[in-house]
Amino acid sequence: MNASRRRAQVLLGTLVDITVQAPAELAEAALEQAFRRVAEVQAAMSFHDTASDLRRIARASAGEVLGVAPDTHAVLALALQLEAGSGGAFNPCCAAALVERGLLPRPEGASPGPAASLAEGIALLAGSRLRLRRPAWIDLGGIAKGHAVDVAVEALRAAGVEAGTVNAGGDLRTFGPQALTVQVRDPRRPGLIQPLAKISDLACATSAWLLDRPERRATHLVGAAEDVEDNPPMSVTVFAPRCALADALTKVVWLRGTHAAPLLREHQAQAFLWRERGEPQVI
């Protein structure tokens, strides 16, 4: 008999919360495998972990060929696609700027003169390998977190779970017939939670700052369009088929605004924005 079972673990710098609808004998093994996959993504793509693929890439020199985890290779492939499609608004080669802002640790032994874009820094090869075109300090924090949610869902489905939700600090994906109401804090009135949509078999991610924390305004964004407009977003939520897409596209929408509409359509995604002034907007 199916019943709701919920487990949570601290991973990816947040609380990863998984709920499944499944028989007890199936649910526990499925949950264990889902959390194992999230931990594997964390180990491969954490810029804080000196043994991660990203830190090994940061220490590598131009011309070196490195083997990376299949998860890392898959996320880098998607990141290259989104970097090109967004005209550089999505910029994974941003770790050097984030290090200077004190948001990431300075990698010991890293090669100097890191690439300004992912395409400038790496070329993907077959067999989960890549070649360094020039030194590359890569941050995949958000898109990797979304990918972790996606692979957790895949693990649950592979184990026979027919319905559930994986939530990693606001990067969320639900599968199965049940509808989930997505609620987001109104950044202009932080005490108010607003329902945005009911979703099923869909993912979403939110990037936001609060009006009473202006010092955090867009500090996580680095891109070709990093000069934020006069009436910038305070909160961006993207709905997409995969959580990795949803998370990455929040950054593109933040920087490109309505100009991100073609890229959203290409990936069957939709965005909801709150700006400092004016009414909420759907793209």
Describe the structure using short key phrases.
FAD, T-fold, 283 residues, flavoprotein, 33% helix, alpha+beta, three-stranded antiparallel sheet, metal ion binding, eight-stranded antiparallel sheet
Second rung of CATH, namely the architecture of the domain at 179-282:
Roll
Mean pLDDT: 90
What's the arrangement of strands in the largest beta sheet? 1-2-6-7-10-11-12-13
Distance between the termini: 42 Å
InterPro entries: ApbE, ApbE-like_sf
Keywords: FAD, Flavoprotein, Lipoprotein, Magnesium, Metal-binding, Transferase
Catalytic activity: L-threonyl-[protein] + FAD = FMN-L-threonyl-[protein] + AMP + H(+)
Pfam family, one: ApbE
Quick structural overview:
The protein is α+β, with helices and mostly antiparallel strands and 283 residues long.
How would you describe the overall organization of this protein?
The protein is of the alpha+beta class and 283 residues long. Among the domains are: 87 residues, T-fold; 104 residues, ApbE-like domains (T-fold, Roll), CATH 3.10.520. 33% of the residues lie in helices and 27% in strands. It has an 8-stranded antiparallel sheet. Strands 3-5-4 form a 3-stranded antiparallel sheet. The chain has a two-stranded antiparallel ribbon with strand order 8-9. It is globular, with a radius of gyration of 19 Å. The model has no long low-confidence stretch (mean pLDDT 90).
